[in-house]
Write a structure and sequence with these properties.
578 residues, alpha/beta, 7-stranded mixed sheet, 15 helices, 27 strands, elongated
């Protein structure tokens, strides 16, 4: 008998990310309130990089019984639009999250204005009339202290008067800014009298023409967190050097309201970086405006609406984010990892159907003319509750052209003269030959079936090495199929674009044109799918057997079915690009 007395029972401990560790440490000290926020700027559509932030912001709030609010950072009216506001809300909900409250930075314009007035009166802010170039030069370098603005010590009343004129529209854009007076010799460049207000003579999508002076992001962000009661302000790593300024402005605003010891804390995590992907909204906007893609939801784009249209499930994106995790250092993730997460998820939920993308006719010569059989097809072998549907079998079928070879090598297990294969859900057939046109192209393949080998019958146990999919010529629907691949032919398009622009002196658009993958979209117009798909709708997840995962496109109609390839069954890109 084996002694087990000394064997310890080890419980599997949940793996926490560093933000969760911070929260649990705070909870252990008695700080139990958790409030986060997701603060997108409504100047474009969300991309998959935002999905990582969404999953963290909403995820930790839900895990610890807190709340995550949605706050639109609408401080730049020249680039913002209600179209983007509505699209952002739709994407968040599609991912499976719901915000506690909906806020806007513009909700706090009056509070921020009052705070700025107080800073001027306390000698902590001043109006500067230097040009942007002069201000940049006067700030110095990381190793050399800056020099003070000639306007740094202008009288308080003068700064107050000019600040009012900025907001009344009496000052042209770029002529004046309000700067915080901090430390021009600070080793942190963000402390060298940062600009906190500038003039923007453009109507705001919510406040109209009420404001002409608008707060800068660094001035609005921390204070908005404070006004709302945020406990954990989660940002990406580029905001690490901004954190001291964030803390300073929060300290300053706290001094004037007497709300006690509460303060938000900023924590930074790594961005989601993917190879073969460009995620800057500025560059994505160029692609859209210049017609290099078919809108923000072009399935080749990295936007969430594009992934949705292409057929990605929200569960697959959340699973991918969970798999790569959160760290405090940047990394470049392989796009293949995202595709792997999509395959894993869709394998469990996609309905299996038959579709022939490059058809050639297959005639079963010994099958009775006019006879039609309804074959049972399993909807999803991974899900017994998914049920079945029927697919019609007849004498004349469509099969994939690539599944036939007249003179095949020894280990070719598909259709070739003299060889048996199984037609999925139907019979074993033996190829007897083919017919060609005057150019030598195969137009018809001939075969004979064994009536005792119908799937489910005793004779069906006979083993053959090849199984092919098909559709009945008289019981199928013609369809358009769009095969999408990666938009960029270079692994790191951001750095490659910078290199091209530097070398050639061209703009971003011209650089992008040189990097676009010419094979990122292939449209097949002579495809056939089983008629079971006549009522398929966008966001239905499908697997075209032996081909890949597909989704019904939003442009599909009953008269013209259109399908998008979500992802291939296997990672073919890596193999092709070795």
């Amino acid at each position: 008998m084996t002694e087990n007395n000394n064997i310890e029972t080890v419980e599997t401990k949940e793996r926490l990310n560093f933000v969760e560790e911070v929260i649990e440490e705070a909870i252990a000290k008695g700080e139990t309130r958790v409030q986060t926020r997701f603060p997108p700027e409504p100047n474009g559509y969300l991309h998959i990089g935002h999905a990582k932030a969404i999953c963290l912001d909403f995820g930790v709030a839900a895990k610890y019984g807190g709340v995550c609010n949605l706050r639109f950072d609408d401080t730049n009216p020249t680039k913002e639009d209600m179209e983007y506001v509505e699209a952002i809300k739709e994407d968040i909900q599609w991912l499976g999250f719901q915000w506690g409250n909906e806020y806007y930075a513009s909700d706090y314009f009056q509070q921020l204005w009052d705070f700025a007035i107080r800073l001027i009166k306390e000698g902590k802010a001043y109006i500067d009339e230097q040009t942007s170039e002069e201000i940049a030069a006067q700030k110095g370098t990381p190793t050399q202290a800056g020099t003070e603005s000639p306007y740094r010590n202008r009288p308080v009343e003068e700064s107050l008067d000019l600040f009012e004129k900025m907001n009344r529209g009496e000052i042209e854009e770029g002529k004046m800014v309000l700067r915080a007076k901090i430390d021009m010799a600070s080793p942190n460049m963000h402390f060298r009298d940062p600009i906190i207000y500038r003039v923007v003579n453009h109507p705001h999508h919510r406040t109209g023409d009420k404001w002409k002076a608008y707060p800068m992001y660094d001035f609005a962000h921390g204070q908005s967190d404070y006004f709302e009661g945020v406990t954990h302000s989660l940002c990406t790593l580029e905001f690490v050097p901004h954190r001291p300024l964030y803390d300073l402005f929060v300290d300053w605003v706290k001094e004037g309201d007497g709300l006690g010891n509460y303060r938000p804390r900023q924590y930074e995590f790594n961005k989601l970086n993917l190879n073969y992907t460009l995620m800057s909204k500025r560059n994505l906007l160029i692609l859209v405006k210049e017609g290099l893609v078919d809108g923000w939801d072009d399935p080749r784009m990295p936007t969430l609406c594009a992934f949705r249209r292409r057929g990605y499930s929200p569960e697959s994106i959340r699973g991918f984010v969970d798999k790569i995790g959160y760290t405090t250092y940047d990394a470049l993730n392989d796009f293949a990892l995202l595709e792997s997460a999509v395959r894993d998820d869709l394998n469990k939920r996609a309905t299996r159907v038959s579709a022939v993308l490059d058809p050639v006719k297959l005639v079963i010569t010994n099958y009775p003319e006019g006879q039609v059989e309804a074959m049972e097809a399993v909807n999803n072998p991974e899900d017994p509750e998914a049920g079945t549907h029927t697919i019609e079998f007849s004498r004349e079928l469509w099969m994939e052209r690539d599944d036939f070879m007249e003179d095949a090598p020894k280990k070719y297990f598909r259709m070739t003269p003299g060889q048996e294969v199984r037609l999925k859900n139907a019979y074993i057939v033996k190829c007897t030959g083919c017919e060609k046109d005057e150019n030598g192209k195969v137009t018809t393949v001939y075969a004979e079936y064994d009536p005792d080998t119908k799937t489910g019958m005793p004779g069906s146990n006979r083993k053959v090495k090849g199984t092919l999919h098909w559709v009945s010529c008289d019981h199928c629907i013609k369809a358009e199929v769009r095969l999408y691949d990666r938009l960029w032919k270079v692994e790191n398009p951001r750095d490659e674009m910078a290199a091209i622009r530097k070398e050639q002196g061209c703009d971003a658009l011209e650089a992008m044109k040189q990097m676009i993958n010419p094979n990122s979209l292939t449209i097949l117009t002579e495809c056939y799918v089983e008629k079971y798909l006549a009522d398929a709708k966008p966001l239905d997840y499908l697997q075209f057997q032996r081909i890949g995962y597909f989704n019904v496109d939003k442009e599909s109609t009953p008269e013209k079915l259109v399908f998008n390839r979500t992802v291939t069954l296997k990672d073919s890109w890596a193999k092709m690009n070795k």
